[in-house]
Design goal:
By secondary structure, the chain is mostly helical. It has helices spanning 5-21, 34-55, 61-77, 82-104, 108-124, 130-150, 153-178.
Length: 179
C-alpha cells in the first residue's frame, strides 16, 4: 500500500486531540467554529484510516462505526434538527451493538460502539456547553477502556488526553455558569 494507514490514523488522532484541546466557546453557527471543523477533519481522516485498515484485513465493521461519527459531524454542520439527529445516532448505535454481538465481535466492542456513539452525540450538541463536553468525555473514556482491553496504547493515550481536555472544558464552562 502506498499510504501507511498508521500515519493516516495518527494524523486523524492528532487533529481530533487538537479539536478536543481547542477552547470550548458558544457559537450560533456551527460552521463558524474552528473546533467543529477540526472534529469534521479528524473524523474524515479516521474514516480513511478505517478503510485502509479494512484493505489490510481489518474488520469492515469499524468503517460503519466511523461513518456514525462522520454523519454526526455532517448533521451538525448542516444544522439538521438535533433531536432527530440524536435519535438517529442512538438507533444506529443499538443496531450496531446488536450486529457486533451477533456477527462480528466480543463484548468489548460494545464499549467502542457506546464510546463512539457518545462522541457522535457530543458532535451534534451545541458548542461551548457542558452537555457537549460531558458526552465527548464519556465517549473518550469508553474508547480508552476498549483500547486498554485491546492493547492499543496509542488510542488509549489519545482518548485519555481527549478526556482530560474535556474535563478541563467542563470545569471552565461550569465556572462561567456560576457568575
Amino acid at each position: 500500500m502506498l499510504i501507511n494507514p498508521f500515519y493516516v490514523g495518527l494524523m486523524g488522532a492528532s487533529v481530533l486531540v487538537l479539536g478536543y484541546a481547542w477552547p470550548a466557546k458558544k457559537i450560533k453557527n456551527p460552521r463558524k467554529s474552528f473546533k467543529n471543523w477540526l472534529f469534521v477533519l479528524g473524523a474524515l481522516l479516521m474514516l480513511i484510516y478505517s478503510y485502509f485498515n479494512y484493505l489490510l484485513g481489518g474488520a469492515i465493521f469499524y468503517i460503519f462505526l466511523q461513518l456514525l461519527a462522520n454523519l454526526a459531524s455532517l448533521f451538525l454542520m448542516l444544522r439538521i434538527n438535533k433531536k432527530a439527529s440524536i435519535v438517529f445516532i442512538i438507533l444506529a448505535s443499538i443496531a450496531f451493538i446488536g450486529a457486533s454481538l451477533f456477527y462480528f465481535e466480543d463484548f468489548s466492542t460494545v464499549l467502542f460502539i457506546i464510546g463512539l456513539s457518545l462522541i457522535a452525540v457530543g458532535y451534534i450538541l451545541d458548542s461551548g456547553t457542558v452537555k457537549r463536553n460531558v458526552m465527548l468525555c464519556l465517549g473518550s473514556m469508553f474508547i480508552a477502556i476498549f483500547s486498554y482491553i485491546e492493547g492499543n496504547m496509542i488510542f488509549l493515550y489519545l482518548n485519555i488526553l481527549c478526556s482530560i481536555f474535556t474535563i478541563f472544558h467542563i470545569y471552565k464552562l461550569s465556572l462561567k455558569k456560576k457568575y
